[in-house]
Task: inverse folding
């Protein structure tokens, strides 16, 4: 199957008062039609900026300096704003983390839902309204006719996220970008929303780019996973390989940091020391070397490339690539933290 | 599911020399005012009859979804909210209606760590002054010893001593949370309410802070009430766990009991709904409860969970189940507990 | 909503009572009294004293207050101590000119402030933004009397295109056009300060709204930037402006005192100044009462309007 989305070496920069900062640095990946790609990382790793770069919603200060984004083989990187508007909400749509603030408080649900429909579909008036009601029904909202006339504040967080999904899917996009779609929700509501996304994914065949910091959500939803750290992709693999055999010390560290619900009690969690370096002060060499227990002089001096280690499994780490002498100890260490 | 037929035992464990805190039927209501004269027309029952006890050196994890009243309990214990009914005992002493001046000495023993490390520290105060403030307010340190105390606290939470001259806004979220912990420790408390202390932090930093809290507990013999919605963190740090739903404790027991043999359907659903970071388990059977949590201003009749419970019976709609358990102290408020 | 309004009106009663008591005390603390102010140098002290006695000015203060309150409660505003006309009639003649002028100034101020404030926010930290912010600063800080005199000097004295004051041409018909021409300068003076304050308020409010997540949602739907601003952002940005427009009403009344004096505008402001000068207690008290009611009413109206405009807020 051909690729729906191809992101190739994009570099996204923002102008700030203290000069330019690079939020996304040479990120490449592909996404097939109907596939779910998880993008994992902590705050500031560039996962959200990557998604906003695809939508080209970087505001006045942000821009894509390098690289190419191809949607269905068409390069959309240099497209005019008017052409991008036709893609947004129709071919690619987005849902966001906080359903409480993502809907406009002074317009009704119906207004906000029909706005999207009338922009991109040849529907007006009653037909647009019927389609909107149908979309609300699809996302599991009971009494959709009444909800059309409600304002967002009347709805619970879970309901609002359903509305956001209805808006996003109303024009049958080929790609849905979900930026932390369940982070702000309670556990039982999160389960509802994930369930709904799975159901709609099967019905519509929409590809999903799922951005999250929650490895549990990724394990639940994704086919393939990209791990990002400090603006770069550090590891990419299919979801099973990634959880079974993480190659990058950061990935392994993240997995060790989560307390498990099943199994025996951990005495101490395998935490990653230190904090994510600020974008303005990226360390030389491997960006993770300041926090990495395996780091050597080579790591501090030379930035490792992102190389394929096995079929579909890419990693950006000298140790994992067998470039360091500590190869055997690497494997044992990584094994320890993940099992 | 078996109906509990034998005479159930009361759930609270008896007082021992170790019992540090005991809540008996604690209620915290917020009035809803309406009408021409603003008369009280109802109450938001944030905490509605909660009984539990915490022993010295224990960590009681308090879990539940937003609006279940878990944070209100913590705030009511510290008297940041006024209780509406019930009794709070600290070391056997009834502190429910202590005046502000009588509470003052208690405040050196009981402290709180807040969720948001960005808003709970004054960004324009130096770390040193943040840590000194409680000591000076409670006359706990002379000017000669106060600087040594600040160093001791910074060492304890893993912040380099050299940073004490910096302002709070210069630190990252994880570091601020460490400073928040240091401030809570400044008066050598015995009991700390941790209100979602890691929810706002990144995954790798959460682990650092959880490890720190555990280490401090061991070193200083602290007792925690650990409030969180993240089950992983609660399991990692708690000795006992209470699960709350709409102002009530629906299940309480040791960590092992709650995670290995949950009795209440709500506990089971919570555990089951939690996304497991293991893709091999994604096909597992899941119970997804429908609907939202009802409003605490108007909780459902009978069992409060009955509107969402997949195992609901007629009796659940009418009769409110009591929190009853066996002799082991593992109790669930369900007519048909597993 | 109706219970809410009723409850608020109920609260008005003690508030008004308090305001009138404070006013009464302050007025009586001012040196002099109506008789002294209008005294004929040839009048003998005995007659003056008799006049004071007749007007009840020698009674203890609280007796005077209760007498005044008694007449007010019967719906009678009393008689002026200087012109001896019924206070109700004096105020009745003057109220419409002030209301018209105030409304005109308010509308003018908003017509200037809203577009400029939004423009300034959209062009934050550009030359346009600095220019607008600078102008608003000047508008806020320039004193009413100075601006009034300057405008009279330029447009009436030098250019001769607008009248120097009054509400209508001497011997004119007082028709709509005539009144409008007379209103231009005083309305501009009153509007300048309001517009200056409102520009900054609209700008701040808009800047806050421009950061909101729901605008990103709108953009991600493919909504044109024009509508992102003028549909999604604008309505949210103007909500808080409603509140502060309500708060301008007392300031307008205060500003009217000086502006009406400068432009010889026969309104409440002028009447206030005249009655203050002559220590005309009944008129001052009645004007204060009306001002207090206007302020409280404006606050209530603001809350009601806010609740009508913002679906999240339901008073009650």
Result:
């Amino acid at each position: 199957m051909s690729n729906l989305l191809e992101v190739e070496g994009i570099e996204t920069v923002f102008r700030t008062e203290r000069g330019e900062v690079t939020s996304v640095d040479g990120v490449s990946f592909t996404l097939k039609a109907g596939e779910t790609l998880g993008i994992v990382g902590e705050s500031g790793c560039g996962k959200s900026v990557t998604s906003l770069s695809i939508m080209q919603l970087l505001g006045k200060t942000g821009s894509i300096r390098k690289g190419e984004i191809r949607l269905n083989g068409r390069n959309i990187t240099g497209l005019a704003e008017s052409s991008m508007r036709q893609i947004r909400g129709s071919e690619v749509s987005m849902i966001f983390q906080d359903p409480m603030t993502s809907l406009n408080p002074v317009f009704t649900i119906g207004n906000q839902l029909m706005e999207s429909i009338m922009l991109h579909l040849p529907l007006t008036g009653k037909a647009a309204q019927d389609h909107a009601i149908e979309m609300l029904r699809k996302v599991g909202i009971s009494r959709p006719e009444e909800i059309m006339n409600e304002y967002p504040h009347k709805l619970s967080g879970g309901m609002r996220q359903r509305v956001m999904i209805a808006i996003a899917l109303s024009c049958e996009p080929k790609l849905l970008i979900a930026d932390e779609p369940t982070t702000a929700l309670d556990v039982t509501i999160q389960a509802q929303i994930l369930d709904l996304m799975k159901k709609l994914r099967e019905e519509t065949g929409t590809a999903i780019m799922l951005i999250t910091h929650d490895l549990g959500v990724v394990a639940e939803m994704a086919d393939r996973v990209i791990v990002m750290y400090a603006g770069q992709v550090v590891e990419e693999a299919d979801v099973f390989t990634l959880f079974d055999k993480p190659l990058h010390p950061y990935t392994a560290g993240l997995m060790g940091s989560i307390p498990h619900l099943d199994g025996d009690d951990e005495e101490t969690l395998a935490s990653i020391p230190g904090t994510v370096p600020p974008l303005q002060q990226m360390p030389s060499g491997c960006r993770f070397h300041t926090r990495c227990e395996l780091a050597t002089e080579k790591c501090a001096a030379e930035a490792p490339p992102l190389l394929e280690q096995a079929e579909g499994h890419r990693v950006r780490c000298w140790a994992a690539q067998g470039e360091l002498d500590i190869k055997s100890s690497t494997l044992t260490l990584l094994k320890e933290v993940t099992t | 599911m078996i109906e509990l037929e034998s005479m159930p035992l009361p759930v609270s464990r008896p007082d021992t020399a170790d019992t540090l805190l005991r809540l008996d039927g604690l209620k915290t209501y917020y009035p809803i005012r309406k009408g021409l004269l603003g008369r009280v027309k109802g109450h938001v029952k944030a905490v509605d009859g909660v009984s539990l006890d915490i022993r010295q050196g224990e960590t009681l994890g308090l879990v539940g979804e937003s609006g279940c009243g878990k944070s209100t309990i913590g705030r009511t214990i510290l008297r940041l909210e006024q209780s509406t009914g019930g009794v709070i005992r600290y070391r056997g002493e009834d502190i429910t209606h202590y005046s502000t001046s009588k509470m003052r000495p208690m405040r050196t023993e009981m402290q709180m760590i807040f969720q948001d490390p960005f808003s709970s520290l004054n960004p324009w105060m130096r770390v040193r002054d943040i840590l000194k403030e409680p000591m000076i307010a409670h006359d706990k340190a002379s000017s000669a010893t106060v600087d040594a105390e600040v160093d001791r606290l910074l060492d304890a939470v893993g912040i380099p001593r050299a940073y004490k001259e910096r302002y709070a806004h210069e630190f990252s979220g994880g570091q601020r949370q460490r400073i928040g912990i240091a401030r809570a420790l400044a008066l050598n408390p015995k009991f700390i309410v941790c209100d979602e202390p890691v929810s706002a932090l990144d995954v790798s930093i959460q682990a650092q802070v959880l490890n720190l809290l555990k280490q401090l507990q061991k070193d200083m013999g602290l007792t925690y009430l650990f409030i969180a919605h993240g089950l992983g963190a609660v399991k990692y740090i708690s000795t006992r766990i209470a699960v709350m739903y709409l102002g009530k404790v629906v299940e309480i027991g040791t960590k092992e009991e709650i995670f290995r043999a949950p009795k209440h359907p709500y506990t089971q659903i919570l555990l089951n709904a939690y996304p497991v970071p293991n893709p091999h388990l994604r096909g597992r059977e899941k119970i997804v409860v429908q609907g939202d949590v009802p409003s605490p201003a108007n909780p459902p009749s009978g069992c409060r969970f009955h509107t969402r419970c997949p195992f609901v019976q007629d009796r659940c709609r009418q009769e409110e189940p009591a929190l009853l358990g066996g002799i082991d102290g593992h109790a669930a408020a369900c007519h048909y507990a597993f | 909503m109706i219970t809410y309004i009723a409850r608020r009106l109920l609260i008005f009663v003690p508030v008004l009572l308090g305001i009138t008591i404070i006013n009464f005390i302050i007025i009586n603390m001012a040196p002099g009294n109506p008789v002294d102010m209008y005294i004929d140098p040839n009048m003998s002290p005995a007659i003056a004293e008799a006049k004071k006695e007749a007007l009840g000015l020698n009674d203890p203060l609280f007796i005077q207050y209760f007498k005044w309150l008694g007449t007010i409660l019967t719906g009678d505003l009393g008689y002026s101590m200087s012109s001896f006309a019924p206070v109700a009639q004096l105020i009745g003649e003057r109220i419409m000119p002030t209301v018209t002028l105030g409304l005109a100034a308010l509308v003018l101020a908003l017509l200037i402030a809203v577009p400029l404030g939004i423009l300034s926010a959209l062009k934050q930290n550009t030359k346009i933004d600095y220019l607008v912010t600078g102008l608003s600063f000047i508008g806020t800080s320039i004193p009413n009397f100075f601006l009034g005199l300057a405008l009279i000097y330029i447009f009436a004295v030098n250019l001769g295109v607008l009248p120097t004051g009054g509400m209508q041409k001497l011997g004119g018909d007082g028709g709509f056009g005539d009144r409008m021409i007379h209103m231009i300068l005083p309305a501009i003076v009153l509007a300048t300060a309001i517009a200056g304050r409102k520009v900054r308020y609209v700008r701040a409010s808009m800047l806050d709204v421009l950061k909101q997540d729901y605008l990103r949602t709108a953009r991600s739907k493919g909504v044109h930037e024009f509508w992102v601003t003028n549909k999604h952002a604008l309505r949210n940005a103007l909500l808080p402006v409603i509140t502060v427009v309500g708060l301008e009403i007392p300031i307008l009344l205060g500003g009217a005192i000086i502006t009406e004096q400068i432009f010889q505008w026969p309104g409440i402001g002028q009447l206030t100044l005249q009655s203050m000068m002559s220590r005309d207690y009944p008129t001052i008290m009645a004007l204060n009462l009306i001002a207090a009611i206007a302020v409280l009413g404006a606050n209530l109206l603001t809350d009601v309007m806010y609740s009508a405009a913002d679906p999240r807020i339901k008073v009650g």
Notes: Chain C touches chain B at residues 3, 6-7, 10, 316 (CB under 8 Å). The mean pLDDT of chain C is 85.
